[in-house]
Amino acid sequence: MKKEIRKLRDSFSFALRGLKLCIHGERNFRVHLTAAFYVTIFALLGQADAGQIAALCLCFGLTMSAELLNTAIERLCDKQASGYDMLVRDAKDIAAAAVFVCAAACVAVGVCIFIGGGILWQALHCMAAHLWVLAALAVSVPAAWCFIFRYGRIQ
User: Fold this and answer.
1) What is the maximum span of the chain, computed from C-alpha positions, in angstroms?
2) What is the reported pTM?
3) What total number of domains does the chain contain?
4) Which domain covers residue 22, as residue numbers?
5) Model pLDDT for residues 65-97, shown as the tens digit of each residue
6) Which residue in 70, 59, 57 sits closest to 29, CA to CA?
7) Dihedral sign, CA of 38, 42, 45, 47?
8) pLDDT in tens, 130-147
9) What CATH number has the domain bearing residue 133?
10) Which of 26, 19, 100, 25 minimizes the C-alpha distance to 63?
11) Phi and psi torsions of 11, nearest 5°
12) To 5 degrees, how large is the angle CA 59–CA 19–CA 86?
């Protein structure tokens, strides 16, 4: 029993290590995290219902998972290639296209929820009624910018 628990704990530990590596080393993953943060804030401000929140969470998970897999494929390809290789380039481009397709589908879901469902207008109305919310979001933008573009560079 202790061995199975240790294996389970190790599995989580390895997964969290991989997540940490991706957050630290992949700017595009940080872009996805930041976008998920702001989309979540707007969804909450716009009083999205449970189904809409669930759809957004699935989109976040799908896109970030695709980015994690893309990163794994890129690293494996870089490890195996000793020089320029057309097949490696194709594999990396196809993996990047998978992330793009996921992200585009998620944007479509977001448009349906935020524009079609009126969530964006409710969120904007909430911010107009509570200017402190708008100020807090404005203050968070430089921190988000640093997280996206500077976090991976800080050693």
Assistant:
1) 59
2) 0.88
3) 1
4) 2-153
5) 999 999 999 999 988 777 788 999 999 999 999
6) 70
7) negative
8) 999 999 999 999 999 999
9) 1.10.287.3610
10) 100
11) -60, -45
12) 80
